[in-house]
């Protein structure tokens, strides 16, 4: 087989692996973390016939931008609300972002290095961690990459189309996760304009596109305020986007967390980032303008997130495409030898890890099915094939990148969804069965701190607001089904049994906040058959 055909085969393998990483068993893992806020918010919008006011337990939840809610809502209405449907729109955008990043890379690099950059992007933990979650991060990342790609393609032109497409990408990012993408891209664009003296971009066409973009950005906030008959959405926009950066009410973490999360999101190829920063700073005077722009942009973006007062690990995710380009520029210019050798040596261990993974999982008490064994063997054979192919393609390190991607895909696309469990899902499904089989039941939640989370409500498929009681005894007198989260106090347990309540426990010993206790009156209904 010719080298050209083998190079195409490598690209095909990459696309298959990325597709499996994004879409493989997408709906099998229960909702995780804050996914429920987006999923339940969209579901309740469908129930209420609203397009601008998400709710959780039928209380307004308007602190988040609307674009993810809209896309999740449309997917849920077309396919029915499930883990798969609420994640589908984000997964599609993630898949699209790979192709857009490929086009971006082709504008900066020759084909072999464009492939490398795209492979590094598709195999990065920052990409794979969020593509399978119904959260706003991947929406923001896709919009950012669209805007960055448009800018690179139109940077030498005064083009109204270019400016409109640029702000379209920014609009996707900002209507998904606020103004972070604006700050990041502004830093990059200003650095590039200064280095290349592209001052002609300050022209009427650009300002017209900016004006239209600002109008479209604030339109959903205006329509939300109209539906709610209050200016609260604009205050929340100010609090979440501006005040939070300088005077935050939460997420008060130290600045140095980004020294960990920046390289983490580039894993497993984080060592290249450290080497690239060292080498490029040391040889700054020898760099081309493009190299200087991406080096300074990475440093500026990092400093921006570090000096902002509100900090969380995933906030710095928008740095990912800039860092991938920086790493690829470093590999192209300096042709490092030690790191590729280290990663190549590590790649030879990957098939052994894959082949032994069922035994390792079984030793931790997981049940290994024939399907999992079949996929494991399939991935093992693929990895052996990649090791054999690496010396026969034009750029051998591409096969090494795919070896690392393959074991990531095995985890994110296969093992994680198959072995994930959720007490929130189990408890929610149980309550759904109760209220489905027995009509006209009064469903209540009891909590002196926090009530059930959105993930629970999504699985319970509530149709109306669940009242939250502070006093357990009153709730026991007035309600047929009670939901308690975190703990079940002994006095409540005793009182419930006296009043003929049956207690069903869904306990999570590792995370007590995810424990649920469902109390239902045995004189009113029989135990549902689950």
TrEMBL record:
Domain of life: Bacteria
Membrane topology according to the record: Multi-pass membrane protein
Keywords on record: Cell membrane, Glycosyltransferase, Membrane, Transferase, Transmembrane, Transmembrane helix
Annotated compartments: Cell membrane
Cited InterPro entries: LipidA_mod_glycosyltrf_83 (IPR050297), RgtA/B/C-like (IPR038731)
Alphabetical GO biological process terms: lipopolysaccharide biosynthetic process; response to iron(III) ion
Annotated Glycosyltransferase RgtA/B/C/D-like domain residues: 64-220
Membrane spanning residue stretches: 6-27, 84-105, 138-155, 161-194, 206-223, 255-278, 290-308, 314-331, 343-360, 372-389, 396-415
Cellular-component GO terms for this entry: plasma membrane
Principal subcellular localisation of the protein: membrane
Molecular function in Gene Ontology: pentosyltransferase activity
PANTHER family in the cross-refs: MANNOSYLTRANSFERASE YKCB-RELATED (PTHR33908), UNDECAPRENYL PHOSPHATE-ALPHA-4-AMINO-4-DEOXY-L-ARABINOSE ARABINOSYL TRANSFERASE (PTHR33908:SF3)
Protein name listed in UniProt: Glycosyltransferase RgtA/B/C/D-like domain-containing protein
Origin species: Caldimicrobium thiodismutans
